[in-house]
Amino acid sequence: MATNFVIACPECSKQVRVSDEHVGKKIRCKGCGHVYPVTAPAGAAPPPPPVPKKTQAAPGAPKTKAAPAGAAKTKATAPTPALKPEDDPNSPDYDPNKYVLAQTNDTLPRCPFCAKEMPSAEAIICLHCGYNTVTRQRPHVEHVYAPTAVEWFLWWLPAILLILTMIGMFVWYLFFWGLIEEWLADSWFEEEKGPPVEYLGGFSPGMFRLYHGLLIAFLYVPMVRFVYKRLVKNHRPPERKIKDDLF
pTM for this structure? Predict the structure, then answer.
């Protein structure tokens, strides 16, 4: 398995991660464009020599005779370029500290929301964006204006008017309860003056009081629900967001 290590450019000291397969080869620095050879750090084992691949002759091709054991093998090799004094291990200007392993934070986990490094391996909340890796939520922050006294009053005004309306309806029902008998006297609802007084079709004062009370109770239900939501459940007026271009 290849071993990775970090080397630095001798010109601009820009670090790059390479493997032991590149030892002896030249690379170009992405920062300054300087070409320099890759040298293994001190104490590292030399890379294993490449294993030659066996070639299998195609069927029907003529077999070549093996060269005698004592025959000399010649191979054209490219001339080795001269190394700079600071890159030559035998030179007094050679600095081995340029090729030591650098400490990196690649083992730290990254935030799944902003892809930046977490403070530590045990961290739960990202310090860059506030993302919580346990609840998988991110706090929502907005800049808003503080509601004024006029906004508070206008937000509560419909509920206050409904309360006054309900009080007025209750007072009206008490007024209606006492005067319904007088209103039905000598009307076409009264069949016989009695006593006892009988009314046409059952339209007696009790019937009017019952259905009038049911009507008021039916109207009370949505009014009470609206007043509860406006004054208890959602008593704050809606917030006005500050424009983003102000920050």
Answer: 0.42
